[in-house]
Amino acid sequence: MRYYYPDYFDSFKCIGGMECPDSCCHIWQITVDKKTLKKYNRVKGQLGSRMRKKIDKKTGNIEPHGEENRCEFLNDNNLCDIVLELGEDYLCHTCHTHPRHEEVYHNVRERSLAITCPIVCKELLLREEPVIIKLKEDNKKDMFDKYFDAPLYEQLLYIRNSMLNVVQDRQIDIFKRMVLILGMAHDIERRIIKRKSRKHNSFINKIIPFYPEFLLKEKEEIDKIVSAYSNVSVYSQITLHMIDEVASFTIKKLFTDMIFTLCTMEALKNTWIPYLQSIINIRSQMDDKEYESCQIEFSKQITSTQLEQLLFYFVYLYGCTATYDGFFLAKIKMAVTNTLIIRELWFMKWLEDNKTLSTDAKAEMAHWFVREVENSDENLEQWDSLMQRNSRFSLEILIKICSYLAR
Ligand code: SF4
After folding, report:
1. Per-residue model confidence as pLDDT tens digits over 107-163
2. 29: CA distance to ligand 1 center in Å?
3. CB 65 within 8 A of CB 83
4. Domain extents for the chain?
5. CA of 17 to the centre of ligand 1 (A)
6. Is the overall model pTM greater than 0.90, yes or no?
């Protein structure tokens, strides 16, 4: 088994309790795994009967309560009653590992620390040096999986790692780096589609899927794309052919449309949609000239390193998930869009707080947005499909925004 993980993965320590600005034990549905559920069934006393009453026997779902959908076992001091009474060994798999996340591929695990945790998010934003992805191997093996497209995963791994090098190329403006990886993803996806059309459609392959290796010619094409988009000179070619000069009122509208789309998704925290609506109201009252001059002022206040850390995090997390559906461009659009939206949320917060913005405030906005999108399977699926189909997230629009911000 191969394990990939960012170099800061093992250093995380949960601070928990009242110290944590936004405990992870509320807002989302926590499901107890079967093994732990059996253990809970043997717990005696008051805690045991609470467990049997509040945890669904079939699904393992813990019934949340209160306005904030708090976990039943999270007490008023924001500490877990299960840990206090029985110790950490009694935590279910989700609670034991969170915010450690594992993307599962055949014989490969890609590990990350979810920035849905405000502490992880803040530590990432405070980090100056580029993140390194490490590799560890052992002799474990998964059972054979006939549905896993191994040749595609290995290609995507190579492409994603090359893309991460572009993301960390500090010689290039951060928004230009975004355009380069979008262009790379667009051209690569075409090669993935071309290879898919070579798949055998015979009767036997309908029962046993067949995933052909990439041809040498296809690998050479991919190499050429990767190396072309690793060079900043491509940026001017892309923007020259794709867009005219972009006005600030267009950018203001494009961002407002994106924020509006977020309002149509399931809200995990009941203050999320009212907050987004208040932002939309402020933006609608804002003069276009004022928006532009504030954007210029704001650009000088934030460092591209923080945007790079976010972009790196999202590209690493989403890139190879295209193994399962082939929609590689949508995954990279999602990474770029998330980073741009977080930046725009920071911009609005900076305006709201009289042009000040602390790292704590940045972490608060970033982790909140990511929690809303990633902690709901329904939202994550919808977000992915919006990237595939919705014109508000088209390649042209994303490039327009990036080229405006790169000026
Ligand atoms: S959000 Fe992070 S620091 Fe807070 S309780 Fe959860 S894992 Fe711990």
Report:
1. 999 999 999 999 999 999 999 999 999 999 999 999 988 889 999 999 999 999 999
2. 15
3. no
4. 25-97, 147-407
5. 8
6. yes
